[in-house]
Amino acid sequence: MAALGWLTPRKRSATARSVLAGEAAAEAGLKSSQEIDGVGAAPTGIADPAVPDFPVFGDARAAAFFDLDNTVMQGAAIFHFGRGLYKRKFFQRRELARFAWQQAWFRLAGVEDPQHMQDARDSALSIVKGHRVAELMSIGEEIYDEYMADRIWPGTRTLAQAHLDAGQQVWLVTAAPVETATIIARRLGLTGALGTVAESVDGVYTGKLVGEPLHGPAKAEAVRALATAEGFDLDRCAAYSDSHNDIPMLSLVGHPYAINPDSKLRKHAKDREWRLRDYRTGRKAAKVGIPAAAGVGALAGGTAAAVALHRRRR
Predict the structure, then answer these.
(1) Checking DSSP bridges between strand 255-259 and strand 275-277, what pairing results, if any?
(2) Dist CA 16 CA 33 (whole Å)
(3) What is the pLDDT of residues 265-311, one digit of tens each?
(4) Does 150 participate in catalysis according to the annotation?
(5) Which of 37, 67, 119, 271 is catalytic?
(6) Is 59 an active-site residue?
């Protein structure tokens, strides 16, 4: 894969692997967006009647960048994907139990734990190694319908639609595999997706990544690369995320939004007078301190779900 050599000067430091991951995501995203373009997909999940006073109609040099997990969709895409692969016998029950625990933790804490996310990615890479990209794309379509379609936040979906209605491009930017992110973007009628790029040779996954997961600074690099390729003015662009890990991406644009924010991002956003949106009900994930009993209950629920799924398959 040819590297993209036209990055603009960056305000924040990034490792070489972050830059490589960002450039790879931008290149893969542009390629996949050409496939999305022209495919009619009816938007789903629009329920929030509130219309934001931004974006500016007709500003083609502006675009919107949306984090996926807990911003556009409840939970983590890679965990839902793992659940779908288990259903198709890609791995055994003990791996599903690990996925269930990771998802329970993610839902309980409401934030991205780097070690949990890394464990999930390592598991996914080992599972898909040797499989064809086309095969996983086809399965990903089914998994979206089974586990993801009903988890889209209506409020965030409305924000994305506002940018589309204004004639602007809308991109998902996520640590999830670019193939999974592309499926979600197409189903939601978005422009495209920037995601983690897994290495493939002759259409077969090798079990390695190109650079590193698209997380933290790598997301900012991907947005920067895409903006240069598409001629976006980042000061006129918007970005949306729930996680403090995405502060580099949010700081890159002129219109940052904190969506369902964790406690660190909420504080950061308030200090800088960024706009906030919270579409959750009940207990806010931003609250600090989680009772031990709640953690045990979430783990028990996740394990019970894994066992029940296994029994149904038998």
Answers:
(1) parallel
(2) 25
(3) 999 999 999 999 999 875 444 342 222 222 323 323 333 333 333 44
(4) no
(5) 67
(6) no
